[in-house]
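Changelog-linked ticket: iron/sulfur cluster example.
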Amino acid sequence: MRIVPARDAGLCRIRLAWGELSAAQARVIAEVARAFGSGFIDATNRANLQIRGVREGSQETLISRLVGAGLGPTTPGSDDLRNVMLSPLAGLDPHALLDVTPLSSALLDQLQRDTRLHQLSPKFALMVDGGERLAMLDHPHDVWLSAGSAERFVFGLAGCPPRFESDAPALGAVSRVHVPALVDALLHTFLDLALPQHTRMRDLLATCPIEEFLGHVQDKLSFPLAQDVGNWRRPPSNARLRFGVHPQGTGDSVCVGAQVPLGRMDAATLSALADLAPRLRMTPWQSVMLLDVPVADAQAVVGQLTTLGLATNPDEPFARLIACAGSQGCAKSLADTKADAQLLARLMPSTGDVHLSGCARSCAAAHRVETTLMAVAPGRYDLYHQAPEAVARHLTIEQAARWLARSTPDA
Ligand code: SF4
């Protein structure tokens, strides 16, 4: 694990296998965030956590506490690679085609054990989709695998599973048992062919025809890649399922989801969440799901989440707003996006999702959000609405709220 510099001192990224952490691990994170950092913890769009404001001189102790809590990698040098994304309901959704957690565990192990793979960029990411009803399908991944059935996975590169006729189709299919070998071949082929400037799969595929890439992959495999995937499309996901109470598997427990306002919570909130459930899962929407909650306690837990300030209803403003670290935490930011989002939360109309970004890197959202406010100066934003061109420029937050109200059907 390592700590990277940020405007508000060190930033410690904690990578969580499929976003999950135990209550005990959450308490350790809260404790070290309070003792060695600013006391604030961010949820990320890769379902990880970040401790902010880590002070000079405390970095080693902080890391050793996290590693001691089982939050580090299994092999040195592999922390940055632990980017295997799953649905927040992986292994829990009774409607999924299969439980993909064992398969993704095997892939995580593969990534950490094979030292050549440690050359991959920290941004390089895989997605394993079991057909759950809640899944982030809009984030482009370097490699994605999606269950076509319990025994067969379709796959693609530098993109997302296709949902609509207009989407690029899957590239091929393999049986479930062949997935680890396929991933191994895909990653080693990438490393074989990538030039130093090719950090992501999309960079390489911009210069290497996909047929050529797949030809190299096939040479590494002892089984044929099925390239005829027919008209396979991924069924839609329902992002609203990240809120509220949902069945967990076929047992007596339920999971309860809520949104962390603007992806940031203090240590006391994280500790309080740990008191509500034995397991937590962070989601790519910067929200949290509490797992293994007894059915009888579910409504009380929803009430406690509300008391803690989390959004438990998908229509609340903080369920529809995201903002990057902004000028409080990032030197690149042209505005204090978090503070501006707090103001917008009080003014915005009753529908519509909004993303505030301090610069074009768009750290808070790897996908297109209905409306994006892109900072151009302190307190000023260009507004993008379902189009690559700005529809209004240099707006204050109040002006942006009025623009949103005018363009909202029920306003
Ligand atoms: S989007 Fe830009 S300003 Fe915001 S955190 Fe990322 S790099 Fe910083």
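Closing comment: Example verified and attached. Residues 3-78+238-318 form a domain with the Sulfite Reductase Hemoprotein; domain 2 fold (CATH 3.90.480.20). Residues 179-193 form the longest helix (15 residues).
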